[in-house]
């Protein structure tokens, strides 16, 4: 496997990493993913629709619904765009944690791919599940990205 | 408020994007929900022109019920379409994806004008691949081409489209599709007189037009400074950009438009009975099967339109209309 040089000058031999978003807290997972991307990794996130946001359903829906009203006043077709499909929503969340206005951040973003479920080419491959992003320790209410997106018209 | 000088309705609809169509035969976004014996849920025809007919009003609640009424009708010439392929779609997390294709072994010579047909094609292998995936397939479509060379319009290259095969069971639909593969299908096999259809077509192209023609804003008085065929004000000082709602110049026409619930008044085979004396202007005579559809249909003459099974509920019970007279008066002066 080709070696890859990270920002800090260390050599890494593994350049690809797969994250499993099943029952993972969205924000916490995204920070981890953003770090790996900036290190030079190519990251795939699988099971995007099963990622979790903590909080009451109605309040999270309200937040996202309010967010969707943010658009260019003079022409809404110019954005900002708000993805309504689980894989795109997760990808957009990670984008917010990258230095998007620098080429380093943009290149890192292009190394990120997100998927709904586990596509055939990933069956049997190793998947990382960050422990600190595990949602099973949550005692509060929670909502999955799939449920959230269905409210906005995503058809499973 | 409410006074015209204070607030007025918008001059044109903001619900449509005024952009040119990507394809001259648009692909329908959706198909009607259909249960029953397998059949195609659409058909392709060529718009020939308009005339009028007299028929017995059969809407019982109409104040003209059981009396003779006149209606404008559009004539669509429908030479038989040829089914040269089947295509199965399977469901994925990202929408419908093509699962497998099956092409007919023998195709019409004219189809080569439109696309390259494979020289060596293993029909059995392709058929087995499609059959193996049949359990996963959720939607089956026929790949069809039109036969404009049978009409008098001088067009030789066929148009290609995908039309869904409506069926309760995919296996039944597949067998129906196989029985049709490589064969011609008539309009009678798909629609009947009295049924309602949706017309999907591309409107007449008008090119780059100003706001008066494109959006219907008022022509200003003749003493207006600069221009009188422009918009009086294109917006306030701030925000110092033009809003997307302002009627502006740009492309007009050649848009995809779907019109719903057009009633089929008649399906016939003898074009001479309905063609005006001297033929339809800019079209000629109708040589093939034809459909008379009540009202208008988007697009110019000679353009291919898709007739699709209705998406919406029929506005009246489906019953064949009793046509008393079809005008064949000359349309040339």
Structure commentary:
- The complex is a heterodimer of chains A (about 160) and B (about 325).
- Chain A is an alpha/beta fold and about 160 residues long.
- Helices cover about 35% and strands about 15% of the residues of chain A.
- Chain A has a single domain (about 15-150), classed as Ribosomal Protein L13p, Chain: A.
- Chain A is built from five helices and seven strands, in the order βββαββαααββα.
- In chain A, α1 (about 25-40) crosses α3.
- The longest helix of chain A has 14 residues, at about 25-40.
- With about 325 residues, chain B is mostly beta strands.
- The mean pLDDT of chain B is about 95.
- At the A-B interface, loops of A face loops of B.
What fraction, in percent, of the residue positions of chain B are helical? under 10%
CATH superfamily of the largest domain in chain B: Translation factors
Order of helical and strand elements of chain A: EEEHEEHHHEEH
Largest interface by Cβ-Cβ < 8 Å: A-B, 11 and 7 residues
Radius of gyration of chain A, in Å, reads: 16 Å
Query: In CATH terms, what is the fold-level topology of chain A?
Result: Ribosomal Protein L13p, Chain: A
Tell me which oligomeric state these chains represent. Answer: heterodimer
Any idea of the CATH class of chain A? Alpha Beta
What is the helix/strand order of chain B? EEEEEHEEHEEEHEEEEE
Second rung of CATH, namely the architecture of chain A: Alpha-Beta Complex
Q: How widely separated are the two ends of chain B?
A: 49 Å
Compact description:
The complex is a heterodimer of chains A (156) and B (333). Chain A is built from 5 helices and 7 strands; from the N terminus they run βββαββαααββα.
């Amino acid at each position: 496997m080709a070696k890859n040089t990270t920002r800090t000058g260390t050599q890494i031999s593994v350049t690809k990493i797969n994250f499993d978003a099943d029952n993972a807290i969205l924000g916490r997972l995204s920070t981890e993913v953003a770090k790996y991307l900036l290190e030079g990794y190519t990251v795939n996130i699988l099971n995007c629709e099963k990622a979790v946001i903590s909080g009451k359903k109605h309040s999270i829906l309200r937040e996202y619904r309010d967010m969707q009203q943010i658009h260019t006043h003079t022409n809404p077709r110019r954005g900002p765009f708000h993805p309504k499909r689980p894989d795109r929503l997760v990808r957009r969340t990670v984008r917010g944690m990258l230095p998007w206005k620098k080429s380093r951040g943009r290149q890192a973003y292009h190394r990120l791919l997100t998927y709904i479920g586990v596509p055939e080419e990933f069956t049997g491959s190793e998947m990382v599940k960050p422990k600190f992003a595990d949602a099973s320790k949550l005692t509060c209410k929670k909502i999955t990205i799939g449920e959230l997106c269905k409210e906005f018209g995503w058809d499973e | 408020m409410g006074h015209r000088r204070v607030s007025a309705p918008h001059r044109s609809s903001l619900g449509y994007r005024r952009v040119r169509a990507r394809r001259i035969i648009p692909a329908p976004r959706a198909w009607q929900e259909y249960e029953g014996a397998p059949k195609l849920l659409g058909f392709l025809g060529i718009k020939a022109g308009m005339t009028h007919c007299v028929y017995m009003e059969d809407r019982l609640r109409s104040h003209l019920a059981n009396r003779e009424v006149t209606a404008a009708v559009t004539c669509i010439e429908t030479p038989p379409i040829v089914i040269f392929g089947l295509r199965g779609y399977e469901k994925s997390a990202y929408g419908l994806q093509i699962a497998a294709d099956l092409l007919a072994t023998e195709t019409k010579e004219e189809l080569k004008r439109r696309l390259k047909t494979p020289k060596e094609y293993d029909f059995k292998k392709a058929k087995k691949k499609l059959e193996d995936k049949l359990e996963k397939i959720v939607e089956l479509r026929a790949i069809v081409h039109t036969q404009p060379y049978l009409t008098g319009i001088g067009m030789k290259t066929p148009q290609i489209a995908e039309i869904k095969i409506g069926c309760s069971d995919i296996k039944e639909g597949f067998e129906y599709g196989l029985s049709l593969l490589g064969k011609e299908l008539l309009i009678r096999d798909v629609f009947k007189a009295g049924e309602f259809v949706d017309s999907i077509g591309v409107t007449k192209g008008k090119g780059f037009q100003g706001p008066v023609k494109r959006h219907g804003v008022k022509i200003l008085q003749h003493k207006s400074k600069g221009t009188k065929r422009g918009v009086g004000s294109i917006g306030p000082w701030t925000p110092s950009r033009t809003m997307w709602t302002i009627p502006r110049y740009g492309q007009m026409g050649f848009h995809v438009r779907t019109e719903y619930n057009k009633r089929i008044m008649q399906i016939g085979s003898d074009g001479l009975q309905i063609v005006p004396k001297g033929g339809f202007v800019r079209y000629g005579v109708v040589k093939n099967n034809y459909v008379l559809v009540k009202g208008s249909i988007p697009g110019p003459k000679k353009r291919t339109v898709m007739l699709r099974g209705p998406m919406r509920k029929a506005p009246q019970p489906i019953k064949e209309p009793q046509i008393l007279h079809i005008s064949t008066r000359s349309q040339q002066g």
